[in-house]
Design brief:
single chain; alpha+beta; HIV Type 1 Reverse Transcriptase, Chain A, domain 1; five-stranded mixed beta sheet; three-stranded antiparallel beta sheet
């Protein structure tokens, strides 16, 4: 029995095929049928006159005809979905709109307060001092035993300069920048930016003013606002000083050699590898400076040069945000801040000889989550091998001072220790890479993240923690010393375990196991 013929549905025609799938119609016929008909090539636009004439006005009441049986049936079927989804979606949207309206009201009030304060001040410098307050740096930073103490003292007394190699912008250039507006990412997160600016304004880091109030002020330049998405974190607000040439014409007044964070991971791995295992496991802890860049203030007369354009908000004029501190996105912000953080790290390391330190007000936050291991590894010749990447090095000194020698760090998969010993004709010698005889105590920094390493008892770990906490206080003011300051260290990260001692910790994006001497990627990066 032959297979039945099949029907192929090709738009716009339907063609029949034989039992083997071949079309029975010729190709020319099928191609001609596939083309649109002349009546479909060009259609006149619909007549909207009668339609508009039949539509009633909103003020007029139109009688509704009773629904038919089909209408009742369709209404009965659709009513559960409408009753459950639309009211919920409408209520959520109303809540969002209400919150945004409240936020806009707060933003408008904040802008109005800034305008009133600007009118009451005799000069822009006086306005900047009234908003920002005194410096966040300690006045005694110039007395610290460090070569960079003079630089920090100058920043405390005068602020960070903002200098350019080109003339000031003209009014036409400023108006063109305002007309262009901020980046698209900032427009998508305009609610978040408004909330961030209100918080930063409360802390004295930024001020927001209408563009027409600052348009004629000397030295004003503009950059677009930008938002950077972060994994498992809030979006990050950035000033895009690169797009319109602000970074390009900035003079390098900051010490570029202070940016040593590129070798932080290598220095940490070197210290871990060269520590003597007989002193016990190596514990690690991380401490983060909250709003690090915002702790260093600019010169008041130079703040207008780093102003940014905010998104356009309904009911408000074009707004300009003006920083009184280092901004995320400015060319000189990283080297300037690293000059502070690297100096603090050096001072902390110089104090690690102490065997006792007085208690600190924040040490109770990370202490409950400490995971202190007191048992030492079974062998001093090296850690047991595991099927992961090993930390290997033949360095002879810690490279933090800039002398790296012939040290190398490679990631290899080592063979089992039994196979290695069987390949040797003589008994294995003691490990020669252990160049540190005393227990390890070391602190490094990656921009605004301090990483501490320590071997020894619980008392030793507590002493190192207190030394680092007190050193940060010697550089930055606490809320007890500054009217608008918050704690220099992030309280959230002090409480969530980052600053707690442990032998396994994610440091600079890498999972480090100091007991197994392994380096691996976290699960989300594998």
């Amino acid at each position: 029995m032959s297979a039945p013929a099949r029907i192929h549905g090709l738009v716009p025609g339907v063609f029949q095929t034989d039992s083997q799938g071949h079309f029975t119609e010729p190709l020319s016929v099928r191609l001609a049928a596939s083309l649109p008909s002349p009546s479909r090539l060009k259609r006149p636009p619909p007549d909207m006159t009668s339609t508009h004439a039949k539509q009633p006005r909103l003020s007029e009441s139109t009688p509704k005809s009773p629904p038919t049986s089909s209408d009742q049936r369709s209404a009965t079927v659709a009513s559960p979905a409408l009753a459950t989804n639309k009211p919920v979606a409408r209520s959520k949207q109303e809540q969002v709109d209400k919150l945004f309206e409240n936020q806009l009201s707060r933003l408008g009030t904040f802008v109005q307060q800034n305008c009133s304060l600007l009118d009451s001040c005799s000069s822009w410098d006086a306005f900047a001092m009234a908003v920002h307050g005194p410096p966040h740096l300690q006045p005694t930073v110039g007395d610290l035993p460090h070569p960079a103490a003079g630089l920090l003292a100058s920043i405390h007394d005068h602020g960070v300069p903002v200098l350019f190699d080109d003339p000031d912008w003209t009014l036409e250039e400023l108006d063109a920048a305002v007309e262009q507006g901020c980046n698209f990412s900032a427009m998508e997160h305009k609610e978040f930016i408004a909330d961030e600016m209100l918080e930063f304004g409360k802390d004295g880091f930024w001020t927001i003013l209408p563009y027409n109030r600052v348009r004629t002020l000397k030295g004003l330049r503009l950059s677009p606002a930008q938002i950077k998405e972060e994994r498992d974190r809030r979006p990050q607000f950035i000033a895009d000083h690169k797009s319109w040439g602000v970074n390009e014409h900035t003079l390098p007044t900051a010490p570029l050699e202070s940016m040593q964070f590129g070798g932080a991971l290598y220095r940490l791995l070197t210290e871990i590898r060269h520590a003597d295992p007989k002193h016990g496991p190596i514990h690690m802890a991380k401490y983060n400076i909250k709003d690090g860049f915002y702790r260093i203030h600019l010169r008041p007369e130079h703040c207008l040069k780093l102003a940014i354009i905010l998104p356009q908000y309904d009911g408000l004029p074009p707004l300009v945000a003006i920083p009184f501190v280092l901004t995320m996105g400015w060319k000189n912000s990283p080297p300037t801040f690293c000059g502070f953080s690297e100096t603090a790290c050096d001072v902390a390391n110089s104090r690690l000889y102490k065997r006792h330190e007085k208690p600190h007000r924040l040490e109770h936050l990370p202490a409950p989550l400490d995971n202190i291991t007191v048992k030492a590894p079974p062998s001093s010749e090296g850690p047991p091998t595991r099927p992961t990447s090993q930390i290997c090095s033949n360095a002879s000194a810690s490279p933090r001072d800039g002398h790296s020698g012939d040290s190398t760090v490679t990631t290899t998969v080592s063979r089992p220790l039994v196979q290695l010993q069987s390949a040797l004709s003589a008994p294995p010698l003691a490990a020669t890479h252990r160049v540190r005889s005393a227990p390890l105590s070391y602190i490094d920094v990656f921009v605004d993240d301090f990483i501490a390493l320590c071997q020894g008892s619980k008392h030793c770990l507590t002493t190192v923690r207190r030394i680092l906490l007190h050193t940060v206080d010697d550089f930055l003011k606490s809320p007890l010393q500054h009217p608008k300051a918050k704690e220099p260290l992030s309280l959230k990260k002090l409480s969530n375990g980052d600053a707690s001692w442990d032998t396994v910790k994610t440091v600079l994006g890498w999972l480090i196991d100091s007991m197994a001497q392994t380096l691996s990627l976290p699960d989300h990066r594998c």
